[in-house]
Specification:
Layout (H helix, E strand, L loop, with lengths): L1 H11 L2 H33 L7 E5 L3 H10 L8 E2 H8 L4 E13 L2 E6 L2 H5 L1 E2 L3 E2 L2 E4 L7 E4 L1 H7 L6 E2 L2 E2 L14 E7 L9 E5 H9 L15 H24 L10 H12 L7 H9 L5 E2 L1 E6 L5 H9 L6 E4 L1 H10 L2 H42 L4 H42 L10 H17 L1 H9 L2 H5 L4
Parallel strand pairs: 4-12, 8-11
Antiparallel strand pairs: 1-14, 1-15, 2-13, 3-4, 3-10, 3-14, 5-6, 7-11, 8-12, 9-11
Helix pairs in contact: 1-14, 2-13, 2-14, 8-9, 8-10, 13-14, 13-15, 14-15, 14-16
Length: 475
């Protein structure tokens, strides 16, 4: 104990070198633990992107492409599958639920995904957490759009704002579907998944956008709507509106604010769609309600885990068209293996950073030995044994390393708390702050032990110095 007290007082007499060594070790520890934390949280966030979905079904191809496009909305959208295939698979006795997914459009760089209302009931992430609405409400209106938290924040959108969807995405953006606008009915709470950067619309609305051609809405399956047929569709819609006007006229006595029947119907329609009037194409689309012929993927939940492999085999051998079924958990793990090389390289770099910090400590101790030979000789002259001198050097190195580790851990948590909000806000990455793991403690113990081993070099040198060498003055 006296040796440690003496070592601490000796360090205080050399404050500059002490603090330089202390901070070099602290920064090394912070970097090492920070990399470990970032790697663990990235892996955890990656694996939590989808939960509760037993299979993802798409066209036959690479499982990574299907996973990246359907879950993370990264890369090109894979080939499509028939909508009838979705209906047949959803009717299978082993299938508890099935949700169709269609993509291919965007809005100001953000992915637009088409699905149905069952998506909000069955899609889950991070241990079966469901999507939650932050503002507004999920609307079953054909041209309502639900947007992710990041979309709302970055584009400063609110409930009722109008959204124009663009064909394609990224560098292959096409024309704007400005004749079929959407209105925002709900903004989702942050989920820290790809949904935060996604706009969700109905399948019928996406089909309406793609069926529309130069102002003329397309046909029902198996038919072709010419301009005259389109005019007839509008006539039928007008007859429906006149019928509604007649109904409103019967009840005009009950609402003193209705000036006449047509105006009352228009006000009701505007209120229903947050102040946005339907375009001609939207009115026809509402009448036709065309389901898509093709979609991109199907999220499937099965009645039991035992049915996963058999259902996967059934889908992979589907006769009507070439399909591929992937198990999300397995595909995620396989995809994460692609990053293993970068992970190893990152670990090597951080180990070398810690090694540089320890070698810096060694160099500082060695550089101070010549200046401290007189100090050691005085200690020897008052009765200190060579073992005490050796223990003094080891104690100094151990104390500096231990203090550096404590400071490094403190800096780590300060950094984590500082970066947590910006990472979530700007990159959609939620950094969960936890206590140090057993692996972290093991790494810190290795660092402390390494510092003691390294200190044996200057300790052995100081042990070899003689009393006469320390007392003599050299010029």
């Amino acid at each position: 104990m006296a040796i440690l007290s003496l070592a601490f007082k000796s360090l205080l007499n050399r404050k500059l070198t002490f603090f330089i060594t202390l901070f070099s070790i602290a920064i090394s520890v912070t970097l090492l633990l920070g990399v470990q934390t970032l790697k663990t949280e990235t892996n955890s966030s990656f694996m939590k992107s989808i939960s509760g979905t037993d299979l993802i079904i798409g066209s036959r191809g690479a499982s990574s492409q299907l996973l990246l496009s359907s879950v993370f909305h990264i890369g090109n959208t894979p080939n499509t599958i028939q909508y009838n295939t979705y209906k047949k698979i959803s009717q299978s006795p082993a299938v508890e639920w099935a949700v169709p997914i269609s993509m291919g459009d965007s809005h100001k760089g953000y992915t637009v995904m088409a699905t149905d209302l069952s998506f909000y009931d069955y899609f889950s992430f991070a241990n079966k957490q469901h999507l939650k609405v932050d503002k507004g409400a999920i609307d079953d209106d054909m041209f309502a759009v639900v947007i992710g938290s990041e979309v709302a924040k970055k584009l400063n959108y609110n409930i009722g704002d109008q959204v124009i969807v663009t064909h394609g995405g990224g560098e292959i953006e096409g024309h704007h579907h400005d004749n079929i606008p959407f209105y925002i009915s709900a903004i989702l709470a942050p989920s820290f998944t790809a949904i935060d950067q996604t706009l969700i619309i109905s399948l019928e609305a996406m089909e309406a956008m793609h069926t529309d051609n130069h102002g003329h809405f397309g046909a029902l399956p198996g038919e072709q709507i010419l301009p005259s047929d389109n005019h007839q569709a509008h006539s039928d819609h007008d007859e429906h509106e006149h019928h509604d006007e007649a109904i409103h006229e019967e009840h005009a006595d009950h609402d003193e604010h209705e000036h006449h029947d047509a105006a009352a119907h228009a006000d009701h329609d505007a209120h229903a769609h947050h102040g946005h009037q339907d375009t001609q194409e939207q009115r026809v689309a509402r009448l036709l309600k065309i389901k898509p012929e093709k979609i991109n993927a199907i999220f499937v939940g099965l009645t039991s885990p035992q049915a996963i492999l058999s259902m996967q085999s059934y889908v992979n051998n589907y006769q009507a068209e070439p399909l591929s079924a992937i198990i999300p958990a397995v595909a995620l793990q396989e995809l994460w293996q692609f990053f293993s090389l970068a992970e190893v390289a990152l670990n090597i770099v951080t180990v070398f950073v810690v090694l540089v910090g320890l070698l810096g400590m060694l160099s500082i101790i060695l550089m101070s030995l010549n200046e401290r030979r007189r100090e050691m000789a005085i200690l020897r002259s008052v009765g200190a044994r060579p073992g005490h001198i050796f223990g003094l050097i080891i104690g100094e190195a151990g104390f500096v390393c231990f203090a550096g580790i404590l400071l490094g851990v403190a800096l780590l948590y300060l950094l984590l708390f500082t970066l947590q909000a910006p990472l979530a806000s700007y990159y959609g990455f939620y950094l969960d702050i936890n206590m140090l793991t057993s692996n972290d403690w093991f790494i810190l113990a290795i660092i402390q032990l390494s510092a003691l081993v390294i200190a044996f070099i200057p300790g052995w040198l100081i042990y070899k110095y003689s009393l006469s060498d320390g007392m003599s003055i050299k010029f």
